[in-house]
């Protein structure tokens, strides 16, 4: 992983005086799917938001060979990132077509691909996105990232969360298809999906990176995935590195 | 009957002024969470610029254009110079506009005096016409027409242009707009330009309507602008359009059929009643 | 080790010490040229000092909303004006004595704050600000339109039937002491409330209202308590102001009055113990000095670019306010900490 597309080192995030990330290291390979795993509250969403500059952060985030620290979110995204946020980030009062149009950055948006993967979106183009079902909204969110062929990274935060099995499959197919063209950083709790899609993975625990390596290796090791991800039962033996008390000094800057 | 017609047209004319103030306030607030207390100052700047131009034999239409342009520039300068550096600190942004809202009227009265200045109303707009048996001043129609044009233009802008799409999306979720790679701050400047233009236009028209300009006109119109914005639902232009008609009419009718002053009070009572029933305003949009 | 040990009692007792000094001020013949026109104990100086104290207290009460609970109210003038006008109306219309009138005037302020607070607090954030503003505007219009000729309209309403020891230039010291007492009451009430369990909930609401809800508390009731308490203190201030100026003026009902309270609080430092007081005192003093400066010959001789804006105290204060919002976010009260921080960094 010497030439990663996205390389995060020592990412720290403080929200409202609370230290949420204490130092996340993460590499996203230039091809395939990298899964970002961890229990609820481990800091996955915050990591993604930190990468995109949506929360103030310190540490280093190098994307495509360039340090993005200090750049505003739109500048970072303009360098070719598609983002599917955890809450889907749909504009409820806008129509489906308007939601997609807003995301256009390329001169020739790939509507053919989006409509091939999600035919429903074509039929519902004039419907207000707020009246769509959760699954349909997720299709809009993913469709937005596929629209720009110039995207060189897609970040999807739990794209299958709360979806019916049939829709999960549909989303998985779309992600698989997307992964052929563009690397994906996938935050996901559904391990079956991770097994199917991911090549690499990183695991967060209490705001720092607890593990990184090939995805298949981790998933094959039942003990390890149980302690790291708490799969199966409430892991009372979890190693959970205790976070050091926040430094008393108001700022290290 | 003729009284009712006259009151209605006058109420709508006043409502038109409120709409011009409120539409900009509502857009700015919806997109940026900034309650622009300098909006009345922008109105006054427009009023004085129009008055100045009209007194220097510009002709009313040209003077109005000049006043609107000056107000627009002032508004853009306000956003770029004072609001933008305080990005992500909405409370400080509001406070900065409060300071401007205090300083500008004071400056205007320092330069042109605290007393009202007579506005040179052109003969063509100073007359009256007959409508359903009522003698109605022409300027009311000018106000209503201007507000309708602005309403249609705003609707077209919001509904049919990409910038308008960005503004509508930004009103809903600013952060997500930036996460799509869009520089939402350009939309900030844009809504300030639009709001400033509408407020300055209202200033120039208020000179026509009241026949004079004075430094405090802006602040008193601003307060009814706030009422309209809250009633219409924060961030909603259509809501503001409905609310301004209601407020203008209620105010005129109550003022006529009761002791003077009750009209203004009844507007506030109306607001309180509406909030008790629907805290989110007419359009049901939450702040 | 020695000096701090000596200073420690001073640190603890300086408010009491300051109070003693303030109580004794009317007996002082000291002149502070530049700061005050006459000796401290002269009626003119005492009047200005009393006004400074009243506005310091008003700003402190207003900060209960702004700085302690995070409520941006633009209608505080209404409760101040309610105290002033209700008391004044009772005095002039009913012939009740001063004390019953003042008590009823205060009550009017409390009831009004409870009533309008319970409606306005249905909105949050900026919506709340707008609604409070609208209500205050209604009050202002009511006073200016002068229904039934009772409020005196734009002329204001001179108070009648005040006790002899509260009127006349020779009794200014009494008024000064009343203003001082009002300040002490306000400071004590705010301090006590902020330290009480309710005060801690206010702090929570200011930081993050959601989190308070998650804890199973309804912020509405707590906010209403803050609103009514602040309104009560403002109404009390209105009564004191009535004594101090001998009447009620419509200026005290306007939104500009509330905005000036806001400026005082931000100037001094919102959310701090002494900040609003300092801001209120500085603002009031500066406004009077600027006004007398504007009328003096010093300014008349300046070129018009300078003379025109300088003749308007509100212009200067507005600009000063913007500068403070930018350059001094913690207000004057935050200044020592900022200086210390800078010293530590260097
Ligand atoms: N704005 C915020 N204010 C306070 N705490 C926050 C905030 N955002 C996140 N947190 C806290 O930070 C921690 C990490 O949150 P984050 O959303 O990143 O976790 P996650 O790994 O995405 O969890 P999940 O799997 O449930 O989505 C949580 O304990 C959360 O409560
Ligand atoms: Mg998450």
Summarize this entry quickly.
By secondary structure, chain B is mostly helical. Chain B has helices spanning 2-32, 39-55, 60-83, 90-112, 123-126, 138-160, 162-172, 174-179, 184-210, 217-232, 237-257, 262-277, and strands at 117-118, 128-131, 134-137, 212-213.
What does this structure look like?
The complex is a heterotrimer of chains A (about 250), B (about 290) and C (about 350). Chain A has one domain: Rossmann fold (3-Layer(aba) Sandwich). Chain A contains ten helices and ten strands. Chain A has helices at about 45-50, 75-80, 95-105, 110-115, 120-125, 135-145, 165-180, 190-195, 215-220, 220-230, and strands at about 5-15, 20-30, 35-40, 55-65, 65, 80-85, 155, 185, 200-205, 210-215. In chain A, the strands form two sheets. In chain A, strands 6-7-8-3-9-10 form a six-stranded mixed β-sheet, with helices on both faces. The two termini of chain A are about 30 Å apart. Chain B has one domain. Chain B has twelve helices and four strands. The relative contact order of chain B is 0.20. With about 350 residues, chain C is an all-alpha fold. Chain C is built from 15 helices and two strands. Chain C has helices at about 1-25, 45-70, 75-95, 100-120, 125-145, 170-195, 195-205, 210-215, 220-245, 255-270, 275-295, 295-300, 305-310, 315-325, 335-345; strands at about 155-160, 245-250. Chain C has a two-stranded antiparallel sheet. The two termini of chain C are about 25 Å apart. The mean pLDDT of chain C is about 85. At the B-C interface, helix 4, helix 10 and helix 12 of B face helix 4, helix 5, helix 10 and helix 14 of C. Magnesium ion binds near residues 45, 86 and 157 of chain A. Chain C: Keywords: Cell membrane, Membrane, Transmembrane, Transmembrane helix.
Assigned CATH class of chain A? Alpha Beta
Instruction: Name the overall outline of chain A.
Output: globular
DSSP strand count of chain C: 2
CATH topology of chain A: Rossmann fold
Q: Mean pLDDT of chain A, rounded to whole units?
A: 85
Helix-strand sequence of chain C: HHHHHEHHHHEHHHHHH
Secondary structure tally: strands of chain A: 10
Distance between the termini of chain C: 25 Å
Oligomer: heterotrimer
How much of the polypeptide of chain C forms β-strand, as a percent range? under 5%
Low-pLDDT windows of residues of chain A? 232-253
Helix content range of the residues of chain C, please?
A: over 70%
